[in-house]
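Now for a sample.
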Amino acid sequence: MSLLGSDYITQNSRRLCWQEEGMRNETISLPGVDQERPPGLVRALKSMVRIEVERWIFWSPESSDPALWLNHWQGPNAGSVQGDPDAGAIPPMQRRRMSRLSKMALATALEAMADNPADYSIFCSRHGEIIRTREILSSISAGTEISPTAFAQSVHNTGSGLFTILACSNAPSMSMASGANTFAYGWLEAQAYLGSNPDHRVLLVDFDEVIPAEYQRYSEHQDCDHAMALVLRRVERGGISMASSASANDGNLPQGPQFLAWLETGEQTLSLAADGQGWRWER
């Protein structure tokens, strides 16, 4: 399970449900969230673990530069652009069976990990394989045969599982979905892990696609095709810390690419908010 207990998060109640025998929950107060929290989350929020981004890889159809991506989506001509990632690093036999989303996640993760083996990987996706799942539901509705491969790779941890196979990695890996705060909770998971394992490295992957048209009316945020991978390590000086903060106006764009756009600047702080929860990164 996740160190933070984020395997099961109910967005509507903003409750993080956690169970583990022999450990006691602690209660802390967060803006917009007043629930019992697991000790791992308490330690992550109370400690000022500083993290260095050793390497990052970003891909989107609009640009491979997060700053240009942000300019595009904040500009007058904002909108999705068609495009596919360079998945040449994925062996052809596996590549042809993968969804576009899996190719996006794996292409960035494998490139980021080329010279930086990680001790723990976190795969963050708000919607996961929703396009493939929709295709399966359409097949069921039409009474047609379902592809066994498509069915097997429609689960939320598809990207994580495929990565461990292709990278020949036996390091622990987890998959996370936490609504519009998915990237922030992924960072918090990394922060908790590095707080307990100061000499380790973490691979943090954040990826999503535009959801199918019939689901878009249920989403309050802008969905964008993007994939990014960060190699993180703990440092005693410098680096970046993150903490919960008072929630300002909710942002509309995915948090991960906005974080990378900020990382390229010289600005000292970044504040993002979604679903009543605020986050503050500080150099």
